[in-house]
Amino acid sequence: MLPWEALRLLLVVNSFASSVTARNTVVVHQKLARHHDVQVVETNRRGHATRFAEDAARRGIDAVVAFGGDGTLNEVATGVAGTETALAVLPGGSTNVFARTLGMPNDALESVDLLLDALSAGSISPIGLGRCNGRYFTFHTGIGYDAAVVRRVEERAALKRYAGHPLFVVASLRTWAFDYERGRPHFTLDFGDESGHGNDDASTDIDDAYFTIVMNTNPYTFLGNRPLDLVPGTDLGSGLSVVTFRSMKATHILRSLGSALRGGGVPPAPWLDVRRDVTSLTVRNQRSFPYQLDGDYLGETQKLEFEHVPGCLRLVRTATKK
Predict the structure, then answer these.
(1) pLDDT at residue 281 in the model
(2) 186 contacts 219 by C-beta, under 8 angstroms
(3) Which of 27, 49, 61, 130 is 20–30 Å from 185 (CA)?
């Protein structure tokens, strides 16, 4: 594919996403269509974007542009992973973790200009993804408390467009106080023959986990303009990072997350286990536990199997906005 060639693009739009409007969808389409052959489709149910993306890959479309929140992005990535069709990202949600991790502005109309520059330059390169029970994730999977918070937020999904970040804060407090059992560990982590880097004195298994975040990128999320920086150095070319809280005491959680907000990652602590460059792990318990993937709540399960899949997705790499 030559940098100056007009490309065949599929623009997948989630019109229900927090910052997607009729106006900015028209502008995005017009800008892309000035230089490329663009088809537009809109999603209307869960899994719809994946089917659109899979069909685009079968038809040999050059790139699928995911315009929506992180859930839409995840579905498109799942549909094109392992194919020659590339993924392009336009932020349209309330948080847009993956797009902002790439250094893109949190605005679709600014980002589309950077995307056009990247397409013109042929700036496409392979990246690694995580995979959980056979489903890909681009930035993280949350297990336990983290997922219970997302479940509560999704129960009030209509408010996300107007009160995204305050809604998450309120949901976090209510989940901790009323919804999530804090008197017992919820699952075990088995790293097999690898313990991961970062905890030299850590045993291979963790049998007292209250909640865990498995990260393919860093930061974990954003609170407004502030990144929640859990494990610096976690990127799309390395293995997974795994952060496990072994306590649900409010002081422990707030101390660790407060350090992450200040930057530089979470410091070592007795209640915290951090592994880097992990290629596989299994999470299990006899009692079901909740999990979410790229911000999409997926229910409860008794077992999750993770692996890192290097180089499985072709990503349109935009330049970081100055």
Answers:
(1) 97
(2) no
(3) 130
Tens of pLDDT, residue by residue over 8-29, are: 999 999 999 989 999 999 999 9
Q: How far is CA 320 from the centre of its chain?
A: 19
CB 92 within 8 A of CB 67: yes
| pTM given for the model | 0.90
CA torsion through residues 109, 114, 120, 124, sign? negative
Q: Report the distance separating Cα 115 and Cα 89, nearest Å.
A: 8
207 and 188 in contact (C-beta within 8 Å)? yes
pLDDT at residue 263, rounded to an integer: 86
SS3 259: helix
Token digits for 75?
């579905």
- Which of 144, 239, 235, 234 shows the shortest CA–CA distance to 191? 239
Which pair of structure tokens corresponds to residue 71? 């859930």
H/E stretch holding 286 reads: strand 280-293
Q: Which helix (H) or strand (E) holds 107?
A: none
Sorted by where each starts, the structural domains of the chain and their CATH numbers stand as 8-122 (3.40.50.10330), 136-310 (2.60.200.40)
Categorize the per-residue pLDDT at 270 as very low, low, confident or very high, splitting at 50, 70 and 90: very high
- Largest Cα separation within the chain, whole Å, is 60
How far is the C-alpha of 260 from the C-alpha of 291, rounded, in Å?
22
C-alpha dihedral (201, 189, 171, 301), degrees to nearest 10: 180
Alpha-carbon separation of residue 50 from 80, 215, 223, 234 (angstroms): 8, 22, 28, 26
Confidence of residue 322 (pLDDT cuts 50, 70, 90): very low
Residue showing tokens 């906005």: 321
Give the residue-averaged pLDDT of 157-161.
58
Give residue-wise pLDDT tens across range 220-260.
Answer: 988 778 899 999 999 999 999 999 999 989 899 889 988 99
